[in-house]
Amino acid sequence: MLKKLPFSRVASLPAITRFLLETLQVNLGYRCNQRCSHCHVNAGPDRKEMMERSTVELVIHYLCSSGVKKLDLTGGAPELNPYFRHLVREARGMDVHVMDRCNLTVLEQPGQEELPEFLAAHKVEVIASMPCYLKENVDRQRGNGVYEASVRVLKKLNRLGYGQKDSGLILNLVYNPLGPFLPPPQKVLEEDYRRELDERYGIVFNHLYTIINMPINRFGNQLRSMGEFSNYMMLLRKAHREENLDAVMCRSLISVDWKGYVYDCDFNQMIGLSLSFRGTSRTHLSELMGIDLKGRSVWFWDHCYGCTAGQGSSCRGILS
To answer: How confident is the model over 253-279, as pLDDT tens digits?
Structure first.
């Protein structure tokens, strides 16, 4: 039996089933040096949940046995996990493409000063949070001083080759709306970012991803306090495009939490909606060794409209 959840299952849509598994997304812990207003993880400096060495080794074993070639590391700030570099080294040694979902400012934290060089040496793709090219908007969402620190780190990444043509070092930025509305067209916004960051600071990057804010945890609570939760949910439902179901990330990705339990996506992880497997209430990564997930069903609950609304939204930006 599923525990009582803050959202409801949607029965009016056709069943969604999995494609070939391409990406293992791993949440290394909920600790973060920032406390962003939109954070669906409720991450912050006071969070204690961190993936232990034994679970990291299980992730490595799964990568080896499954043949999955994309590892998406997230948090919190994944870099704060003491086994982050070990996991990166092992994955890259198996020729697995590694993505680091980085808040940028973590790279200036004590003990992390040489991390940009480490990421570059192992050709880790950096997917960096940058909700605006304007200081006031970034600091309002992510905290005072975050914008200036982010600019410093982006410049350092550029000096190492990130975002530079033909360097092989990928630097992608992520935009989240500052309020209860959908993102503008990704291509148009990317052009604005590219122009503004270049003219202001000489910063270059590869792509910009626009991601819809999920109405869960911190952002969901913010919506409720504003009396906007129902309106936002209605906005997402009305903007739903059924063709986006063909490309939602949960069809080719699984999300692993800090204890090793598995979910269809990071958002389901945050509300405790485990991957559907053998009728159990929770599924552990150790149970999936040698299991082909292709063709198995994927949950679609009403918060999932956050991925199918408008252009669509995924950890890699728009869907259409």
So the answer is: 999 999 999 999 999 998 888 887 766
Instruction: Tell me how many domains the chain contains.
Output: 1
Q: Could you read off the pLDDT of 80-90 as tens digits, one per residue? A: 999 999 999 99
Sequence-distant (≥ 6) Cβ neighbours of residue 151 within 8 angstroms: 201, 203
130 or 254: whose pLDDT is higher?
A: 254
Instruction: Enumerate the H helices of the chain as residue ranges.
Output: 53-66, 84-93, 115-121, 135-142, 146-159, 186-201, 217-226, 229-238, 266-271, 305-308
Nearest residue to 150 via CA among 188, 205, 192:
205
Asked whether residue 226 is domain-assigned, the answer is no
Which residue in 39, 8, 15, 38 sits closest to 304, CA to CA? Answer: 8
Answer yes or no: are the C-beta atoms of 126 and 157 closer than 8 Å: yes
- Domain of residue 259 covers 22-213+249-291
Would you mind telling me the total number of residues written for the chain in this entry? 320
- What average pLDDT does the segment 291-301 reach? 91
What 3 state SS string does 61-92 have?
HHHHHHCCCEEEEECCCHHHCCCHHHHHHHHH
Query: What is the average pLDDT across 3-10?
Result: 61
Strands (DSSP E) found in 267-314: 297-298
What 143-149 contacts at long range (C-beta under 8 Å, 24+ apart), as own/partner pairs, is 143/34, 143/35, 143/36, 146/34, 146/105, 149/104, 149/105, 149/108
CA distance 79 to 113: 11
Specify the CATH number for the domain of residue 180: 3.20.20.70
Domain membership flag for residue 80: yes
